[in-house]
Amino acid sequence: MPTTTSINRDTTLCLSLAARPSNIGTRFHNWLYDELGLDFVYKAFTTTDLPAAVAGIRALGIRGCGVSMPFKEDCIPLVDEMDRSAREIHSVNTIVNTGGRLIAYNTDCIAIARLLESNQVASSDPVAVFGSGGMAKAVVAALRDAGFRSGHVVARNEESGTRLAGQYGFDWVPEIGALRPRLIVNATPIGMAGGPAADDLPCPIEVVHAAETVFEVVAMPVQTPLVQVASATGKKVITGAQVIALQAVEQFVLYTGVRPTDAQAAKASEFSRP
User: What structural domains and CATH numbers belong to the chain?
Assistant: First the structure.
C-alpha cells in the first residue's frame, strides 16, 4: 500500500461504511494494492449521517465504497444507478464512483453462490435463513439461483420477512419452532463482535445440532458462537470470513479493473484476519 510518505494528491481513495468498522477490508485491499503496485489506499469509516457520507464520495472523487450493515438498503436512494446485482435484491454492498456518477452493486450474492457450490451443499436440502435485512436478501437470492426450493425465512419483522420469502418462493416464520433444516444460514448481526448479541446464537442450540451445514455470514469474529458450536459438533461450516474475502475480490476488481490471482486473494484474506 502507499506509505505515509508515498501517498500523494493522485492516490486513489476507497473506503467502507459500517456501523462497527473492522480492519478486515482495510487490510485485505491495502495488501493487494501493495502486492500489485497500485496507487490506491483503503480506509474504514462509520457515520451517523449517511446522505452526507455518500455525497462526500461523489464530491471528493472517492473511487469506491464497501457498504455494510445497517446501510445496505438506506443508501439506495442516494446513488445514481443500480446494477442488476443490487437492483434485483434491493440491497447494496458496493458503490463505484465513475466521474461523479455513483453505481451500486452487490457482490455478496456472488460470494455466497460460490461457497454453496464449492462446499457441495445440496440444493435439495431444506434451509432456514435467519434475518430479513440486506444480507439476508443476498443469501436468499443466491440460494434460489442455486436451485434451492424448500426454505424458510426466519424473521421477527413480519413485513420484511414475508416480502423476502414471497419474492423467492420461500415461507416466512417468526421463530424456527419445530423446524430442523439441514442447512441453516445466519444473516443477522447476532454473534458480531461489539454488538449487543455478541455471545448469542441466532437459534436454539438443538437446531444447530440437527443441521448438516451451518453457514455464518458474520465475519468478525471468525469464530462466532454459531461457528464454535457447529465446529464442535462436526458440522460442515462456512464462515463469514470466507464470504467477506470472496466478495472483497469482486469489489477490488470493480474499483481497480485488476483481478488478483487466487493465490494473491488467499494471501490477502489470510493477512486480513485478526
Answer: 12-107+248-264 (3.40.50.10860), 109-241 (3.40.50.720)
